[in-house]
Amino acid sequence: MTTYSHRETIPILPERRNNTEVFCTYLMLDNQNCPPLIKWQNIPALKRNFELYQKHNQTFRQLLSQPNTIQSLSMYWRNIIINSAPILEEWEPKNSRKLALDHLASLFEKNCYYASKKVWLNSQDRSWEEYLSSARIFVYSSDNLVKVLKSYDEAQATLDTYIQQTLIKEIKNQHQICKFSRWRLVVKKSDKELRQALQIAGYQEPYISQCIFARKYFQQVYRFNKVQNPALRKLGDKWLEPDSEDFQAATECYNAEKSLSCAPHEVSAGSSISTEQMQAWMETSIEALKKYDQVIISSSENIQNVSPITQPQDSDQLWDASELEIISLEAEESDSEENPLLNQTKLDFHEELDRLKPDQHKILLLYYGLGLKQKQLETQLGTSQSAISRRLNTIKKQLLRTLIQKSQPQAWVKNYVVEWLHKDFRAPRHSDLIEAALVQATKELTVEAQHILFRRYGQQLNEQQIASQFGLSLLDVKTIISESQEKLQAYLIKELPHWEKEYVEEWLKSFYYSLICLAHEHLNLSLEMAYDWETIDKIVEESLKILISQKKGE
């Protein structure tokens, strides 16, 4: 943990040069320097919104020329927020209230800095960065900010003073009840947050799944022994440090339940752990979560709106653009690998799409590229939803037939399973449909076969060592391993038709979304913009032009 022992180590807060920066930037710590530096990072979505009001709203323009501009603009955004049902002008974005909150959160970055600095100068039990993180988490909570803005009385103090005093009280309160103590951090955070924190910190599987599984038992033991134990702690008191008995009890739970079917594959495939390993994992988790909180608060992704481009699943639900970026990247990585089957399948898919008519491409662009629902397409295309569904299914079935003809599982499944056991058994990629199927297949083996596979390919023991551990002959161990491989192969062949259907869906999403992205680039449009039908028509038209040029090889 970074500890500051002198006042000079707190970085200087640079001034923001104009009103746009005051309401459209967020504070970012550059820890590569010592002491760290503070920089103001632009938030494009807020800057666009600020300029939109400046262009279209006369009252807003007048406020910019007043002597106390910042206070006036603050009250302007506040009125938008606390008005439960604002009447929007035609040019105003639908998420104007959320943007107004973000503008004020941007303004209050300065208050977070000065409030945390004041608390730290009087109490250095925690680092200044932790106090700053506490203040910023409060400010970027919409519920907190709305509550504070509603309770503000303009006759009592300026909004700037009121917010800063509120943040000082909040930081002191958080510190007093130890909400940001290291052990509260590891106990309170969700599995999803811990996984993301460990990933950002550079850890990989199977380490991540093992840490999360270990934390589950540490939480239970630590809560019972220390947090909720009335003999040791009263409500509101400081959280006690865990001791060796806590780590020992958590370790015993981990080792006892690591082989259960509910345990993650990465945990079952690993060895039993020691008390020292449990403690080390919890320390690692705490440090990763501390950095994670700073990254999340200083990330523009946490402040800006989610891109409106979405993608459908089979149930006609929508996927967001960030998920699609992952799909697209995974597709690119797969293409870069030497996989003749997938490369040939991709070429065959393109040949099938070349046979489609422009109106069929238009449906695919709207559905897979822009993520519109079939009901929306019904209105836009002037045809029934059932007709749209039939046209989409016809295209998917043809691509599926192409994939099935090329896949020939009997020719490659055996080698694939053997290679997976040796290379990726300990840390399978659950996002890969085939590897996920193999993990499930492993869980359906007998308990004895699972234990032997875990020791052979997880702990990487040789067959003679396994035979000695289980009291079996070497021939018995080899037979069990061989039969298990055959069962994995049979399971995979059975599941391939389901995987192939999903693969077709993913390929269509990736292909048509990439066209939509190129169209945005050609038209100089932002992927974050809100769409009307006129804009959608332009994007689809440009996408079709790109598709035709690609077909001609231009």
Description:
There is one protein chain. The chain is mainly alpha-helical and 554 residues long. The chain contains 26 helices and four strands. The chain has helices at 19-24, 44-56, 58-64, 69-82, 96-107, 109-122, 128-139, 142-151, 159-176, 182-188, 191-200, 207-227, 244-257, 265-268, 275-297, 321-336, 340-354, 358-369, 374-381, 385-407, 413-423, 433-443, 447-458, 463-470, 474-523, 533-552, and strands at 25-30, 37-42, 310-312, 318-320. Strands 1-2 form a two-stranded antiparallel sheet. A two-stranded antiparallel ribbon has the order 3-4. A hairpin with a 5-residue loop joins strand 3 and strand 4. Residues 1-8 and 297-340 have low confidence and may be disordered.
Notable characteristics:
554 residues, mainly alpha, two-stranded antiparallel sheet, 26 helices, flat
Short description:
The chain is mainly alpha-helical. The protein is built from 26 helices and four strands. Strand 1 (25-30) and strand 2 form a beta hairpin.
Average of per-residue pLDDT values = 81
* SSE pattern: HEEHHHHHHHHHHHHHHEEHHHHHHHHHHH
Stretches where pLDDT is under 50 for at least 5 consecutive residues are 1-8, 297-340
Helix- and strand-based class? mainly alpha
Summarize the biggest pleated sheet.
2 strands, antiparallel
How far is it from the N-terminal to the C-terminal residue, by CA? 55 Å
Proportion of residues in extended strands: under 5%
Q: What's the helix count?
A: 26
Q: Strand order across the biggest sheet?
A: 1-2
Cα-based radius of gyration, to the nearest Å: 29 Å
Number of strands: 4
Shape: flat
Helix content, binned percent = 55-70%
